[in-house]
């Protein structure tokens, strides 16, 4: 129930706020002889200041709690980023190792391709130009495979040691068996 204080002359009267029907709020009748508690301006100021201090302390406490939670969340996020960074660093180191391996393998592959290209060129000697044109459109490995598979059809003999061929006998000069034996006998001693 709200009370209002008014001063008329020297005596103070307490008037209750009345509802629309002229009765005090809550349907209560004012009691005769009982005065409500009166506050001075200093009391009101002190009560308001205390209430403001309590609210201020509660707000500061809530703000401090929010700051602490935000810091904890930031640390948690930072820890996750740190884990992610460590994982990425490990992945990068692994990939760098694989790249180094692949660079060595690429160098070997280039050397092998150069050697195979040279060998394929030697195998193309004596091949008709129209077949050579078709083979030039193929990969070096495919060229060698085709040449190997079709060697006999192209009229090439399989690789044999470089031995001189036996000369054909000269016409008109035939050796008898006895002449051959004598010649063989002289060569053996």
What does the model show?
The chain is mainly alpha-helical and 189 residues long. Helices cover 60% and strands 6% of the residues. It contains four helices and two strands. The chain has helices at residues 41-124, 129-135, 140-149, 177-188; strands spanning 3-8, 11-16. A two-stranded antiparallel ribbon has the order 1-2. Strand 1 (3-8) and strand 2 (11-16) form a beta hairpin.
Summarize it:
The protein contains 4 helices and 2 strands. It is mainly alpha-helical.
Features of this protein?
189 residues; mainly alpha; two-stranded antiparallel ribbon; rod-shaped; disordered N terminus
Strand-helix topology:
Elements: E1 3-8, E2 11-16, H1 41-124, H2 129-135, H3 140-149, H4 177-188
Antiparallel strand pairs: 1-2
Task: Please give the number of β-strands.
Answer: 2
Largest sheet: 2 strands, antiparallel
Q: By helix and strand content, what is the structural category? A: mainly alpha
Q: Give the overall form.
A: rod-shaped
- CA radius of gyration is 58 Å
Order of helices and strands: EEHHHH
Largest beta sheet: what is the strand line-up? 1-2
**Percentage of residues assigned to helices:** 55-70%
- By DSSP (H or I, 4+ residues per run), the number of helices equals 4
Q: What average pLDDT do the residues reach?
A: 78
Low-confidence parts, pLDDT < 50 over ≥5 residues? 1-26
The assembly state of the depicted protein chains is: single chain
Beta-strand proportion: 5-15%
> End-to-end span in angstroms?
151 Å
